[in-house]
Write a structure and sequence with these properties.
Length: about 500
């Protein structure tokens, strides 16, 4: 029987890819889920697994060829007569599990572009009885936490990766013994050895788009560090090399972290050393990268919240009764920002090389504090949403963020961000950009202050607003205009209805 291998879904707005590398050739035996080839889009690299076990037939799309979504890549001859694929030497139990057998617990799919994780917590210990789909442990990636369920019922016989261990996407975590009949062990993803395991970078074909980018930038392969499979140079590796080369020569590279100053023995005994989580490490890196890359500048203003608070108090009960969600301030700020971004589109744009990419939509990032650290779930097409839809989306994303249930896709693609430090009591701050975005609005505490209104001193609920922006793309005039438009919309919410 002939089985077709087609291009998988590549992601939102991605319609084509380039065939970068074939790991198999016609006539090779393949196993289910064994990696056949690697596709490269303008954003990410996508591996294509085998849909069935069998023998590699015809390769329709050769390396370097551009293909669309669902295009035919190759064929596989499957069936009883197909030659079995070679098994990984490290796989201790390749036969289907039977009563009294064992099942490997493997790292589950971590998400696009995520290659490793840290074992944060084991919920079971060796010798414990487990049921199928019972949670065994929790893994932590750069973005989200992933729970690992038991693939079969039995006894946890061995923990291969203890808490704190860093594992790759194909690693074995544990072994369950006494597995019930019919429970199939996880397919060993490591069954596909790299075509040139001992190859050095010069023996590995670089991505076609990377070759083109190096030619345009005048770089040679030995000037770029490859991060792809077997050291392949990818397009993003070239971009990093170009950015490094473009840094001012006078700016010396940041020195390695200085060794910690000596601490007295009696003080050291009272200290506690805790390893940074992967999420915290990623937050630190991204924030520092933003400071090193963008020309961040912050402009401030203040807004009188009287009208928004009055409108909210007047309709909050009816709103909650009809829509099943509370009417908060975030929907007003989201609407006001969407309104202002139409007038000042550069705040909603990003820099891509020497181009400016203007976004004719608003995917609003809403920063949320969690016990694990700051995350920014994205409300997609916020400019098309009603107040109720925005409030529901923010409530749902916020809950998923606190529970550690956000997926990678839910935190990608934002075009602008709102950060509300006021919920913690912050009176004023300068938020840091969320790359590659060019703007972030900081909300703060509402505080009653004396204000001069029509020549009279009155007490008004005031909030400081802060807009941090990338001065490479947003001029001071545009930043101030944006902040003034947000202020005007909040001080007179009727302007949002009239599109003024």
């Amino acid at each position: 029987m002939t089985i077709e291998v087609r291009v998988p879904t590549l992601g939102e707005s991605v319609t084509e890819a380039t065939v970068a590398t074939w790991f198999k050739k016609p006539g090779d035996a393949v196993a289910v889920d064994e990696m056949l080839c690697e596709l490269e889009t303008d954003k990410v690299t996508v591996e294509v697994p085998s849909p069935a076990a069998g023998v590699m037939g015809e390769i329709v799309a050769a390396e370097g060829e551009t293909v669309g979504v669902d295009a035919l890549l190759a064929t596989i001859q499957a069936g009883e007569g197909a030659a079995p694929a070679p098994k990984a030497e490290a796989a201790p139990a390749a036969a289907p599990a039977v009563s009294g057998g064992s099942v490997d617990v493997m790292v589950p799919t971590l998400g696009e572009s995520v290659t490793e994780a840290t074992v944060s917590t084991w919920f079971k210990k060796v010798g414990d009885t487990v049921t199928q789909d019972e949670m065994l442990c929790e893994l932590e990636t750069d973005k989200v936490s992933v729970e690992v369920p038991a693939p079969a019922a039995g006894v946890l016989a061995e923990i291969v990766a203890p808490e704190g261990a860093t594992v790759d996407a194909t690693a074995k975590l544990a072994v369950i013994s006494g597995a019930e009949a019919g429970a199939a062990p996880a397919a060993p993803a490591a069954a596909a050895p790299a075509p040139a395991a001992a190859a050095t970078g010069k023996d590995v074909a670089n991505a076609p788009s990377a070759e083109k980018a190096m030619a345009e930038a005048g770089l040679s392969a030995d000037q770029v560090t490859g991060t792809g499979r077997d050291g392949r140079i990818m397009k993003e590796d070239v971009a990093r090399a170009v950015a490094t080369a473009a840094a001012p020569a006078a700016a010396a590279p940041a020195p390695a972290a200085a060794p910690r100053a000596p601490v007295a023995a009696e003080d050291a005994a009272r200290e506690e050393r805790v390893r940074m989580t992967r999420l915290r490490q990623t937050i630190a890196k991204r924030l520092k990268d933003a400071q090193n890359t963008a020309a961040i500048l912050t402009t401030y203003n203040e807004v009188d919240m009287t009208e928004v608070m009055a409108l909210r108090n007047q309709y909050k009960d009816q709103f909650e009764k009809k829509h099943g969600v509370r009417l908060g301030f975030m929907s007003f700020f989201t609407k006001a920002c969407c309104h202002a971004l139409k007038e000042v589109p550069e705040v909603n744009a990003e820099i891509d090389g020497n181009d400016i990419v203007y976004k004719n939509y608003v995917h609003m990032g809403v920063a949320a504090g969690t016990p694990q650290g700051l995350v920014v779930p994205v409300i997609r097409d916020a400019d098309r949403m009603s107040f109720a839809e925005i409030e529901k989306a923010i409530a749902e994303k916020g809950k998923r963020a606190r529970d550690g249930k956000l997926s990678m896709a839910e935190m990608q693609g934002g075009t602008f961000t709102i950060s509300n430090g006021g919920v913690y009591g912050s009176l004023m701050s300068s938020p840091i950009l969320n790359p590659p975005q060019s703007g972030i609005l900081g909300m703060h505490k509402i505080q009653e202050r004396p204000m001069v209104i029509n020549g009279e001193i009155k007490i008004r609920p005031m909030m400081y607003l802060a807009l941090s922006y990338d001065h490479r793309i947003v001029d001071g005039k545009g930043a101030v205009t944006f902040l003034v438009r947000v202020k005007e919309a909040l001080e007179d919410p009727r302007r949002l209805l009239m599109d003024l």
